[in-house]
């Protein structure tokens, strides 16, 4: 991981960690479908403006757009709806923490689908510890963090993210599509797909308070536009499993932001579970007090 990758990784963790608070606030004035449609429209505007400013072009019509439609469904439409619905029934902090399951799910999917990203014993043990941490965070014995249904919806979103990451790596990464072009194409496709299904969801008159407007603008422009550009860059540079590991660090910012802005309760099991998750990731990546020896062959790879 290069220095610029570290900066991108950290920025993405902060942006996505804050997004769960924005979803919570925006959900107070919009239905899940309205929230998702507005979010992807704003994200598309930002990315398309940057694409045009840099002279980039969208892919030509063909089979690549079928792959883009799959990725847009798995990475935006489906998980965005699940998160918007789930956060009406659980806390923003809990939602951010539960997304830490994404690297575990990505490891399983990558092991099954990608011959270049097999699970090593160290990764299996480390990600297994992460799973234990996620279960501890959920704490089914605690009622203050929301309903099990809301938490399961967030976990379903994590499944979608894992499948999207592996699908991008398997079907799109080898096409050498620049990250900006890839992310712009997918958000534009998400606008089309969400626009088609929104009429089939419940509708209510939006309640556009200052907090709702600010949250949805930040969620769309930064949490979708900027964040997805960073994420697809990391998938290209680091691989599916390593890129998805950003979700192990999202809980830290998610919990801190929700604590400061929403005053949501932070329970002992959320803190201990998050520490176990982070320890599991550090063990899986062999970062516990040992310097990784990089051979010329490994560096070239």
Polypeptide structure, described:
The chain contains 13 helices and no strands. The protein has 301 residues and is mainly α. The protein has one domain (3-300). The chain is globular, with a radius of gyration of 19 Å. Residues 291-301 have low confidence and may be disordered.
Rounded to the nearest angstrom, the radius of gyration is 19 Å
Distance between the termini: 12 Å
The low-confidence runs, each spanning 5 or more residues with pLDDT under 50, are: 291-301
Summed up, the domain count is 1
Question: Layout of helices and strands, plus pairs?
Answer:
Blueprint: H1 3-26, H2 32-53, H3 63-86, H4 92-98, H5 102-113, H6 121-138, H7 148-172, H8 179-197, H9 210-238, H10 240-244, H11 250-262, H12 268-284, H13 296-300
Keywords:
301 residues, 0% strand, globular
């Amino acid at each position: 991981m290069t220095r610029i990758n570290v900066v991108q990784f950290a920025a993405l963790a902060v942006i996505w960690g804050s997004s769960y608070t924005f979803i919570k606030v925006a959900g107070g004035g919009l239905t899940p479908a309205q929230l998702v449609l507005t979010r992807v429209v704003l994200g598309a505007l930002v990315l398309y403006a940057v694409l045009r400013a840099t002279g980039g072009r969208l892919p030509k019509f063909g089979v690549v757009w079928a792959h883009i439609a799959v990725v847009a469904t798995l990475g935006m439409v489906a998980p965005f709806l699940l998160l918007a619905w789930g956060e009406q029934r659980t806390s923003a902090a809990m939602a951010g923490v539960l997304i830490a399951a994404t690297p575990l799910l990505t490891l399983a999917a990558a092991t099954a689908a990608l011959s270049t990203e097999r699970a090593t014993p160290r990764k299996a043990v480390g990600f297994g510890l992460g799973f234990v941490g996620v279960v501890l965070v959920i704490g089914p014995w605690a009622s203050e963090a929301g309903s099990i249904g809301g938490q399961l919806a967030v976990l379903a979103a994590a499944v979608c993210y894992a499948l999207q990451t592996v699908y991008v790596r398997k079907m799109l990464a080898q096409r050498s599509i620049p990250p900006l072009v890839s992310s712009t194409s997918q958000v534009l496709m998400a606008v089309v797909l969400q626009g088609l299904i929104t009429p089939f969801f419940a509708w209510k008159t939006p309640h556009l308070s200052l907090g709702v407007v600010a949250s949805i603008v930040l969620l769309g422009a930064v949490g979708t536009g900027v964040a997805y550009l960073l994420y697809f860059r990391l998938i290209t540079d680091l691989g599916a499993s390593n890129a998805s590991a950003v979700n192990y660090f999202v809980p830290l910012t998610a919990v801190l932001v929700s604590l400061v802005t929403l005053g949501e309760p932070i329970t002992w099991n959320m803190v201990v579970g998050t520490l176990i998750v982070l320890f599991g990731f550090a063990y899986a990546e062999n970062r516990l007090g040992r310097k990784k020896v990089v051979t010329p062959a490994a560096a070239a790879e």
